[in-house]
Amino acid sequence: MRYEQRAYAHVKFLELMAELYENEFEDFFHRLMCSRYPDFLDVRTAGSKGDMSADGLTLHSRKLYACYAPQTVKVSKIRAKFTSDLAGAMAKRRDQFDTFVFVHNDRRGVHPEVSGMLSTAAASTPSLRFEQMGSRRLWQECMQLDQLAAEDVLRCEIPIKEMTFGVGMEDLEPLLKRLQDIRREPDPLMPLPDVPIEKLDFNRLEGADREDLLRGMRQTHLVDAFYDGTMRELEHDEVAQGFRVYYEQVRDEWHDPEDVLWQLKMYILGNAQPRPKVLRAALVVLAHFFERCDIFEAPPAGWQPEIGLSA
């Protein structure tokens, strides 16, 4: 799908996340996972057996999924649901899974109670891995669908015509605002982070694109500071995974590095013309994920640039 189509699909996805609860959310989850993974089993209830404490299973990765999508969030009910699902899964399906995934519809992120329960469960049950799957991870799965599959999952037609969107990746809006608020001109004498300059050469990033990334690298410490501590670290990992997924898609569709970087800018900002300081903040974010190697390829050991490329 083109950027405009992905952006349209994202709007429809967010609309669904605001509307889907309980069984309707579970139906959406089943459609999505069946489209993504051939080994996913969309477990249904069966008489007195119910679903045997699993809303879904993957055969090869051995993950068990438990969905919780109430209209009104109550801490006591979250804890009761989590405890019941985990105990039931351990009693009825222990030999069928190695990872317990708590799936929820909270668009704002991981509820503090859920984070605490996952941490406690992981410490007390070291034989299992624990994950959560909220709106960010669900969207990352949607991003990897082709157009026909996405239309089926989202229950809408995705138009082909070009459109203009002023907002790209909404999860980055708080970070972009923070960078705009505290942004200072980078010190040109500040040493660059410990990122091999050869990575720019290896990915054929030259001219203005190269200068933009180098300039952004001088302020990527501000992004680290934004994500440092508490639950923001989990958010950081989820946003980074979104970048990796999107980069891999556009890398396969666009072969010119300039076009790939252009697509990544739209991923953050949308395809409308941004204000200069918003664009500068976005370039700092791109430089940050470039340094982390979430986007673009790291050169193999011993690789040397061709003659003519300057560091």
Inertia-based shape: globular
Q: Strand percentage, roughly? A: 5-15%
CATH topology of the largest domain: Restriction Endonuclease
End-to-end separation in angstroms reads 35 Å
Helix-strand topology string = HHEEEHEHEHHHHHHHHH
Q: Strand order across the biggest sheet?
A: 1-2-3-4-5
Rg, nearest Å = 22 Å
Account of the protein in words:
The protein is of the alpha/beta class and 311 residues long. The protein folds into 2 domains: 3-154, Restriction Endonuclease; 170-291, no CATH class. It contains 13 helices and 5 strands. The protein has helices spanning 3-19, 22-36, 75-93, 112-124, 135-143, 147-154, 173-182, 198-202, 207-217, 221-227, 232-253, 257-269, 276-291, and strands at 40-41, 56-58, 63-68, 99-104, 129-133. It has a 5-stranded mixed β-sheet, sandwiched between helices. α4 (112-124) links the parallel β4 (99-104) and β5.
Structure at a glance:
With 311 residues, this protein is α/β, with parallel strands linked by helices.
Secondary structure: elements and pairs:
Elements: H1 3-19, H2 22-36, E1 40-41, E2 56-58, E3 63-68, H3 75-93, E4 99-104, H4 112-124, E5 129-133, H5 135-143, H6 147-154, H7 173-182, H8 198-202, H9 207-217, H10 221-227, H11 232-253, H12 257-269, H13 276-291
Parallel strand pairs: 3-4, 4-5
Antiparallel strand pairs: 1-2, 2-3
